[in-house]
Each structure stands twice: as C-alpha cells, then as structure tokens.
Amino acid sequence: MSELLHTFEAWLMDYGVWGLIIVSFADSSFFPIPPDVLLIPLAIANPGSALLYALYTTIASVIGALFGWLIGKKLGRPILVRLFSEARIQKVEEYFKKFGPMALLIAGLTPVPYKIFTIFAGVSGVKIRVLVIWSIIGRGIRFFLEGAIILTLGAKAKPFIEENFTILTLAAGGVLILVYLVYLVIKKKKQTP
User: Which superkingdom heads the taxonomic lineage of this protein's source (predicted)?
Assistant: First the structure.
C-alpha cells in the first residue's frame, strides 16, 4: 500500500501546484496523503513562492474540510466506522468533548488525519462557520509556518521541519488556545456586573 501511495505522490508532484491543490482538498475529506509531502518539496524548489503555496494549500484544505463536513452530515457515523478504526473515532469524540470545535484547531496543526475531524464535525452538527474559522486558523498556521521556514532556510528547511515541526505547531497552537481562553475570561468579566 505504501508503494502505491509513493507512486501516487510522485504522480501528483508532476502536476505541481494543481497536484498540491488536489491533495490539499482531498486530505481534509477522504484521502490518506497529507499535503505537506507536496508543499515542502514544491516550496523548497521555489522558496520565493513558499507563502503562495501555503495559501493555496490552506484554501484547498478548508474547502476540503467543508466537503468532509458534508460527508459526515449526509452519511453520518457509519461512514466514520468504514473509514477509521473505532479507537480513532473514540479519540476524536474525546477531543470534541474536551475542547469543542477547538479540536479542529488542534487537528489542523498536528499530523493527525484531519479528515476524521472534518467528517466528525459534520456528524456532530458543528456549524459550518465554526468549521471554516477553526480550519483557516489551524491549517493556515501549519502551512504558513512551513512556508515561512522554507522561505527562511531554503533547502535546509526539510531536515529542520522533520525534526522540529510537531513541537513548533503544538507550541503555536498552545499560544493561540491560551490567547483565546484569556479572551473568553475577559469577555465574561465584562458581561458580569
């Protein structure tokens, strides 16, 4: 199976930006290849366009998240069971119970398959506006961070990203969550007489 996926990755690479857009859309809804496998080499080959590639990846990923949401909304939990293990589904349910829609932010930043979160968002009735906002933030941070690293480091970015990217995205997500929680506390204090 992995040989087939590598062959498909190479085929998508031949299509450049269009391959990146296709895989970014598909990754957020039904496909097992993350867009990073195309974004990183494309951006390293042309560092001046790294942020533009990050923008394409983010937009296509958010549109794919909407399609994943629609899959969940129309086909429900049975589609989750057919695509993912029960253990993964339960993990996603725990994230949604613990963090609410912010689970989309966490998933958008990490290497966890984003499609399971977008489909589950449809199953659980997350509002489209909420899905779009958290997808833009999570996926945007992830892909623009990769683009910025490549813009800064050029070809040296690949080993740096492989070694440090999960920590960087989790730290960025943690800061964002902290800022959001502070905002909620301030908002609540202003509403309290």
Answer: Bacteria
- Amino acid at residue number 79: I
CA–CA separation, 16 and 37 (whole Å): 12
Report d(CA 133, CA 124) in Å as an integer: 17
**Is-contact 142 112, C-beta < 8 A?**
no
pTM above threshold 0.85: no
Query: Cα separation of 127 and 112, whole Å?
Result: 22
User: pLDDT of the chain along its 193 residues, tens only?
Assistant: 567 666 777 777 778 899 999 999 999 988 878 898 889 989 999 999 999 999 999 999 999 999 999 999 999 888 888 888 888 888 888 888 887 778 888 888 877 789 989 999 998 889 999 999 999 999 998 999 999 999 999 989 888 988 888 788 778 777 877 887 788 788 888 887 6
